[in-house]
Fold:
Amino acid sequence: MVASIFDLPVENLIFYAVLGFSWTVYLWEAYLSYRQRRIYRSTTHVPQELGKIMDPETFEKSRLYQLDKSNFSFWSGLYSETEGTLILLLGGIPFLWGFAGSVTARFGFGLEYEITQSLVFLTLATLFSAFTGLPWSLYNTFVIEEKHGFNQQTLGFFLKDALKKFVVTQCILLPVTSLLLYIIKIGGDYFFIYAWLFTLAVSLVLVTIYADYIAPLFDKFTPLPEGELKTDIEALAKSISFPLTKVYVVEGSKRSSHSNAYFYGFFKNKRIVLFDTLLEDYSPLNKTGEHQPEQPENDETSTESKVKPKNKKQGCNNPEILAVLGHELGHWKLGHTVKNIVISQMNSFLCFSLFAVLIGRKELFLAFGFNDSQPTLIGLMIIFQFIFSPYNELLSFCLTVLSRRFEFQADAFARNMGKASELYSSLIKLNKDNLGFPVADWLFSMWHYSHPPLLERLRALGNIKQD
Structure:
């Protein structure tokens, strides 16, 4: 039987290898998730070492939340894998490419207009993905997140937001793709270098403009008001020579009660963004029974998002926020951001180099049903998505391991700044606010967690007494 398999044409071997590896990865992920669900189901009482960190009520809430998320992930993952398999087996990719060609032909564009056909194909593919993913997204938001108190959106807000995301994505994706395809076609023998430089330039531009021009299309950003917190943040940044220019508060509470913080910008123009749900004194979720301030710049906020007051205060106090920022700025000071960019670009250059070697192999196109043509966009899809999938899985795991190492180093940086106690308490608060489950299966954690589990981070910070 093995001999007969290897007697198959090369294109058939490629196709079945891709399909087999895809299901192998899915089954591996399903096995890991099964191990973690066993933890959720069996760990029904707060372990002794967590007794002073998490109360039984919060522990049970987080257990049920993560169990619901894991069950949802199982069914959505099974659907996604089945859908992808059917698309490959039934020739969905060449069918959609042919349909895109018939659309462009109606407007007088012949086979020589490959880039135009590629853009139509890409639009149709993203539309299909958006429609098939919509029911799962709706269920996740309005059943799971709603059930556990995180969702702050109405259906109208959600749908308008989804439409806006789709339009913005197309406005960026289509021009970038058309230019990339054009560069590959005219680049000659060294096209892979020009393609890599182009994608590098695009990524740097997007990182630069995202928070200033793209993110405000979806969320309201306001400067952090003058006061003690802003003064302390500026002093913190100055103490490590972080070139801070602005501090923003983003109105994340109209979408979800999950919290976050990040910084962005290049060179001497760094900005810090804090979610209002992170700030104990700013979060609307803490204003039980209070009149919500008017927001004339965004009238839809009051009618299309719903602020649900909680019994317990959400977010961190000012010293804890400074500790969280000490951790985030530690990533910058220790060069983690630059290292991630360098790794990403080295990987990108390697992939484009290998793409240049493989793009001329006709059997790759034959394997996926392209018998008469070898479109560049399809080549990019086949090679980057399917052929590189084993490498991508290995790289993803290595980056996860590296990310955990960076997180420990950033925690240590904040500790060395004298903020260990505040970071300790903020990690506990954020874990409670986001209903993170503090007990993890070791194999699931090793494969998936880009951040170390809560207990490991607390142990690394040291035995600090908590009130």
